[in-house]
C-alpha cells in the first residue's frame, strides 16, 4: 500500500496535470485555507515543474470569515474589494488558471442571521459577475479540489478524534480521486472517456424532456435543441482540456428556464455558506420555485432563493449513477464537491454557457432566447437515490429509460 506521502504527491500531480492541465508559461492562482500551506507548497512545486511562469497564492481563514459575519456593519458585508474582482478579470484575460482548494466547515456560520449571510453573498456575486463568465463558460482552466480541515472532518466522522478524523478524510479523498492506485492520471483518462460516452449517447438521442420520479420527487424539465450534454472535462479558449472538479462522476446540461414543473426533494444535506440545509423540497411552476420547505436551514434556503430573480430558477441538471465510488462509501461528506458526485443533482441559479452549442460565441440576449437562466449564484443540490427513475422523451414523443433504480439504464 502506498504511503500517505506518496498519495499526497500523486494528488498534487493529478490536480496540476489533469485538473488544471497547466501549460508552460501559464500563471496559476491558488486559493486555499491558510491551514494548508504545506500542501500548497507541494502544488506550487508541481506547478513550476510543469512550466508555470508564476504561482500566486491567496489564503483565507475561516475564523476571520466568522468574525466578519458576526461583527462587521452591514455596509462592511457589502464592501467587496473591487481591486480583487478586477484583478481576476485581468488575470483571466491573460489565460491564468485558478485552483480553489476547498475545506468547508458546514457549521461555520451557524447562529448568524441568515439575512446577513444573504447580503454578503449577493454583494460578492455582484462584485465578481464580470469574472463569472470565464468560469461558467469554461474560458479559462479552473479547478475545485478538497483538503481536510478539523471542523469538516469531525462533521463527517464525529465518532473519531480530530486527528483520526482528518486522516480518515484524507484516505477518502485519496480513494475518490483514485490516487490510492497506481497511475491515477491514466485511470482518470479512462474515466473521462467513459463519462464522455454517456454524454455522447444522450446527445445522440436528442431528448427534449426529462421526467424524474423518486421519493418526494416528481418533476419534468425541457431541453432546448441547442443544449448539449457534457461531462466535467472542459476545453478552454486556448483549446486546452481541463477537469474543473476532482473528483467528478457527472454528466450534465442546462434546462429551458421556464420549463421546469413539479416537486423535487433533497436526498443529502446542502452545505451552503457555512450552514446546513437539510430535508428540503422545492416546487416549480413554469420554471420558478413557488413553494419550498426545509426541516433545517429554512432561512438560509430562503436567502439563497432571494439572491436575485434567477436564483429561483434552474441553471443545471446533472446525472450521476448511484453505483459510483463516492456514493459507494455511504458517507455524507457535507461538501457539495463530493455529495453532488454521489447523486443526481440540479442547480439553482446561473446556467452554464459551455452546455450550449457555440455558447461561447453567443450574446446574452441570444442565450436568453433559448431559455438560458442568469443569476449571481449557482448552487447544486442533491436529489438522487437508489429509488430514482428518469425517462427521456424524444421529439416524436417516444419515451426511453435513462435511469432505473438510480443507475444508467442503457
Total number of distinct structural domains: 2
Assign an overall shape: globular
Could you tell me how far the N terminus lies from the C terminus, measured between alpha carbons in angstroms?
36 Å
Oligomer: single chain
Structural class: alpha+beta
Spans of at least 5 consecutive residues with low confidence: none
- Tell me roughly what share of residues is in helical segments: 25-40%
Number of helices: 13
Biggest sheet layout: 9 strands, antiparallel
Radius of gyration: 20 Å
Total count of strands: 20
Range of strand content: 25-35%
Write down the overall mean pLDDT.
Answer: 96
Task: Please sum up the structure shown.
The protein is α+β, with helices and mostly antiparallel strands and 410 residues long.
Amino acid at each position: 500500500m502506498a504511503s500517505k506521502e506518496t498519495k499526497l504527491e500523486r494528488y498534487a500531480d493529478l490536480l496540476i496535470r489533469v485538473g488544471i492541465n497547466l501549460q508552460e508559461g501559464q500563471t496559476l492562482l491558488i486559493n486555499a485555507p491558510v491551514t494548508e500551506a504545506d500542501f500548497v507548497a507541494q502544488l506550487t512545486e508541481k506547478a513550476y515543474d510543469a512550466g508555470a511562469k508564476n504561482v500566486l497564492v491567496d489564503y483565507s481563514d475561516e475564523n476571520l470569515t466568522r468574525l466578519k459575519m458576526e461583527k462587521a456593519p452591514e455596509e462592511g458585508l457589502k464592501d467587496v474589494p473591487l481591486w480583487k474582482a478586477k484583478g481576476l478579470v485581468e488575470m483571466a484575460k491573460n489565460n491564468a488558471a485558478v485552483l480553489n482548494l476547498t475545506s468547508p466547515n458546514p457549521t461555520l456560520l451557524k447562529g448568524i442571521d441568515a439575512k446577513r449571510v444573504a447580503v454578503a453573498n449577493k454583494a460578492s456575486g455582484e462584485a465578481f459577475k464580470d469574472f463569472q463568465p470565464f468560469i461558467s463558460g469554461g474560458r479559462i482552466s479552473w479547478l475545485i479540489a478538497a483538503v481536510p480541515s478539523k471542523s469538516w472532518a469531525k462533521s463527517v466522522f464525529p465518532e473519531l478524534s480530530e486527528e483520526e478524523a482528518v486522516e480518515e478524510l484524507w484516505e477518502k479523498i485519496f480513494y475518490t480521486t483514485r490516487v490510492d492506485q497506481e497511475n491515477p492520471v491514466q485511470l482518470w483518462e479512462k474515466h473521462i472517456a467513459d463519462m464522455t460516452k454517456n454524454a455522447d449517447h444522450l446527445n445522440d438521442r436528442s431528448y427534449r424532456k426529462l421526467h424524474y420520479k423518486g421519493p418526494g420527487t416528481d418533476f419534468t424539465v425541457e431541453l432546448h435543441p441547442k443544449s448539449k450534454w457534457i461531462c466535467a472535462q472542459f476545453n478552454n479558449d486556448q483549446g486546452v482540456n481541463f477537469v474543473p472538479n476532482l473528483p467528478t462522476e457527472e454528466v450534465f446540461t442546462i434546462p429551458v428556464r421556464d420549463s421546469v414543473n413539479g416537486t423535487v426533494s433533497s436526498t443529502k444535506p446542502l452545505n451552503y455558506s457555512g450552514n446546513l440545509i437539510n430535508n428540503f423540497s422545492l416546487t416549480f411552476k413554469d420554471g420558478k420555485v413557488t413553494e419550498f420547505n426545509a426541516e433545517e436551514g429554512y432561512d438560509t434556503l430562503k436567502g439563497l432563493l432571494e439572491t436575485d430573480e434567477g436564483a429561483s430558477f434552474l441553471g443545471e441538471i446533472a446525472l450521476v449513477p448511484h453505483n459510483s465510488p463516492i456514493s459507494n462509501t455511504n458517507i455524507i461528506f457535507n461538501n457539495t464537491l463530493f455529495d453532488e458526485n454521489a447523486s443526481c443533482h440540479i442547480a439553482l441559479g446561473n446556467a452554464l454557457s459551455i452546455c450550449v452549442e457555440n455558447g461561447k460565441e453567443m450574446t446574452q440576449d441570444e442565450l436568453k432566447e433559448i431559455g438560458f437562466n442568469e443569476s449571481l449564484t449557482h448552487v447544486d443540490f442533491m436529489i438522487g437515490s437508489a429509488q430514482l427513475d428518469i425517462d427521456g422523451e424524444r421529439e416524436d414523443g417516444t419515451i426511453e429509460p435513462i435511469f432505473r433504480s438510480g443507475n444508467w439504464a442503457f
